[in-house]
């Protein structure tokens, strides 16, 4: 069974999103944190859309 959802974004609280942000930043760095939070807020998206929205290059 596939648990990956392409439906509406998460219903996490702002505190939960902040906690995830801090954990991602601490353990994986700024780029992963930026993209992770973006995905939490928007749901799954194509790589080019994520790169555009987060102003990250596809090379990062």
UniProtKB/TrEMBL annotation:
The keyword Ribosomal protein does not apply. InterPro entries: RNA_pol_III_RPC82-rel_HTH, WH-like_DNA-bd_sf. Keywords: DNA-directed RNA polymerase, Transcription. One of its GO terms (cellular component) is DNA-directed RNA polymerase complex. Pfam families: HTH_9. Residues 18-60 form the RNA polymerase III subunit RPC82-related helix-turn-helix domain. This is DNA-directed RNA polymerase III subunit RPC3. It comes from Apodemus speciosus (Large Japanese field mouse).
């Amino acid at each position: 069974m596939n648990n990956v959802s392409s439906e509406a974004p998460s219903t996490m609280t702002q505190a939960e999103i902040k906690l995830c942000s801090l954990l991602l930043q601490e353990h994986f760095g700024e780029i992963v944190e930026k993209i992770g939070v973006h995905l939490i807020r928007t749901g799954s998206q194509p790589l080019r859309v994520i790169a555009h929205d987060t102003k990250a290059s596809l090379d990062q």
